[in-house]
Sequence to fold (397 residues):
Amino acid sequence: MNFKHVKSLFSKTMSSKRLTIVITSSLVFVAVLGFTAYETTKKTVAMTLDGKKKEIRTHSNTIGDILEDLDIQLHSKDYLSLPVETKVKDNLSFVWEPAKQVHLTLDGKNRTIWTTVDTVQDLLEDENIKLGNYDQVRPEIDQNIIENMRIDISKAFSLTLNDGGNKKKVWSTSTTVADFLKQQGIKLKELDRTKPDLKHTVGPEDVIKVIRVKKVSDVVEVPIEYAVTTKKDTKLLQGQEKVVQQGENGLVRKEYEITKENGKEVDRKLLREKTIKESKDKIVSVGTKIVTAQVSRGEPGGKEYFVTATAYTADCNGCSGRTATGINLRANPNLKIIAVDPSLIPLGTKVYVEGYGYAVAADTGGAINGKIIDVFFSNKSQAYRWGRKQVKIRILN
Fold:
């Protein structure tokens, strides 16, 4: 190939490259010019979200178009400072606050709320929920609202607390007796109990009793009463008694476990006992000798008196049923006994009383003085028939 031909070919190639460069540069210039024109025609809009301002450059016609371009879907509870139809102009400002979902529990009833307020207290005011002095809110009312926050409101009610006998009116939001005691700062000891029990659900006007239980020991010394034993004595008249040995009480020491509720004893359990002193029986001799008033007719007689004779029974008013010599007239209704003045007729003297028979002077009486006697009958009808009369009495020994 000759040099001229090569040079010609090279010149044609260079011309083609220049053309390509020129065309490419033109396209770039047009694109830059178009982009510049597009950008310079955008409007500047300021959107505030969560207190932070964001600057947006947009060709959108309305605020709604801006949100749509940003892929933001408005909720009915969202806060938008300007209507969505507002026309976009340069340096326009608007605020968008998306609503947060909050789960509210009020006295056990649940509901879901959408809100744009800032704090729990703002939400309560917005929902027209008024709190009493003893109501409880969790979390605290100054907490900021966050998405899916759970707010629990417990309304307080009044009830009566009886702690160991001390009563007072209190307010509570507790659900069980155990929760209520914890809320009141009341601690139970090992033996303490409550009424109703700890699992019981409390309600308005309930009465919660805390029963303080305490076990203590008590030691007492108790007397052991002596027993009375009797033995027959043929030397004593029937009905007479004689103390042979005086009785003495013993002593036993007893230890008890005492259960007290609110300071009052409710149970006493004997743990152990020990005899400190044995008791000593009282021994009494009881007479069995039967006195007969029959006197031998052949026995020589003594003095004779005319006396005033009345009658009495063992059941008369003021009568003890026993003679001055200890004879039990009720136990011996068939004995012949007369009451005498011992200064005239000594006790134990055997006598014969006209109309009454042989008898023994074995009793006395307050009205028996001198030549007056009282004859014993077993029943009142015989005594009434005897009446009051003058009779002759003969001393037999």
User: Anything to note?
Assistant: Residues 85 and 299 are 157 Å apart (CA to CA).
